[in-house]
Amino acid sequence: LDHFELVRSQGSVLYGSDAVGGTLNAFSKHSGFEDEPEGRTFLHGSAYYEYRTNGQGSHLGRLESQTGIGGKFGLHLGISAKEFGDIEDSSVGLMRGTGYPEQSIDARLDYAFTPQTKLTLTHQNFEQDKVSRWHSTLNNPGWIHGSSMAFPGTFIARDIDQERSLTYLRIAHENEQADAPLRRVTATLSYQSSAETELQIRTATDSRRQSYDVDVYGVDLEVESPIARGTLIYGLDHYHDSVESTAARDRGTGFTFDPANRPVADDSSYDLFGAYAQYIRPFDDKFELIAGLRYTHARAELGKFYNPATKLDESAQSSWDDLSASIRATYRPDADWVLFGGVSQAFRAPNLNDLSGNLTARSGDTLQGSLDVEPEKFLTSELGIRKDSNQYAFSAAIFYTHISDIITPVPITAGSATTIATNARDGYVYGIELEGMWRINPLWTLSGFASWQEGNSRTPAFLGGPEISESISRLLPLSGSVALRWQHASVPLWVEGRIQASTKADQLSSADRTDTQRIPVNGTPAYAVASVRAGYDPTANIHLTAAVENIVDDDYRLHGSGQNEPGINTILGLKYSW
Fold first, then answer.
1. Phi-psi region for residue 82, left (φ > 0), alpha (ψ -120 to 50) or beta?
2. What is the pTM of this model?
3. Residue 6 above 80 pLDDT?
């Protein structure tokens, strides 16, 4: 991947079902043929190696190459291999089983029919082997930090193998003429596949294996047209998921088929269709209004799921429709400042896991789906301010999200470790996000960010039980980071120090309080971790990096994680380009 783009609080209009708090767009690497001299053949590439000293040590490597003819076409090829070793910290020690191998390949071909019309063909493949759900296993001895205590694991092993691939064909056309009826058209065909197998060795006489394969076929069309002094962005998208799943269990005599433990319904499909439009209307150089609407149709067909009452496979189907809207505005009092705000709706239809799942979750709980769940709905209001100048950059935003019918796991009886997906009552999340940068002088830059949230929902204590009002599960505590960077005036050398911190996460839901292998009793402890990084280019072709993370070797854990973060860790990197 080349880079990411985080789009906050846009709702479902442009990005569809699930786009609630925001959308993370991933952009693939490409050859850069448009930046090469017109008609000239080019060949570039790079090799990268990184070594991490923590624990058993980790080795990361990547090779990539770009070739083509400037302005006409370009081909990018890349391959990565990573061998993550077991990590360690100052409290737990060596966390055996946390290491795993990872491999990926990526290829992208771009071809320009004309300067305005381009075709892109991309393929990516990604594999991970024997990734341990470490918190569940005997390798996890537990963790005590002050008054907080995480419990040890109980399974002999719990490993996941996964493989994912993505292939897409895209054609994009741009017309720079101001009066063109179609200023931009983008059409995409895509195919994604994923396969995952989880092996749980719970005891010497109880092993379980769950597998699923998902094939996703997609089509996406987006058009941009000038209309009445504004810009209309409109389009449609449709994705069809085809799902197969199976399960087996070994009670000491060998694995046999176990339909009751399929991870989701076998021989199933899921369709998601959307049609949307968003109108951007500038009224003058200062004020702009953005309004949009999306229609969504979701349909789930469950081929075979096990009914424990009849001990037979059954089938079912459900469908949902939704209309979501958003309206946003920006106001620029001058060239540096922007005021923004808006109200956005979002909608999430139940997925196959919500409807038919049978998974091991949290600290060994069994999470089952339900055919009775209904879609979740969200309404987010946001208000913020942003400043951007050569010396300063600053943004602050507050938000409030009202939640209706959030799908949550509820115990079947009081204290039960078996939960069923259920629609809770209304809930809410509100918070504030801050970001800033101060270019003190040409050599020094200070930057940082902070985020805080508060949230609550009304949830049944157990099926048919009384409702309780409690915190949203795994709510982000007050968290932030501050960095000071020095850049040499004439030599390609930089050094950066950073402190990343979080307050104690002790606002826990009832599900969090029973997830004791991942979330310590009394909450996840606060932490403040210091790191330093540096980079230097001895030649135009060689880039060296070095870092020391967690300098004082603190033991800490991100809230909701199943393992501690590494202790002190030195990272050395070398990149050679040609």
1. beta
2. 0.91
3. no
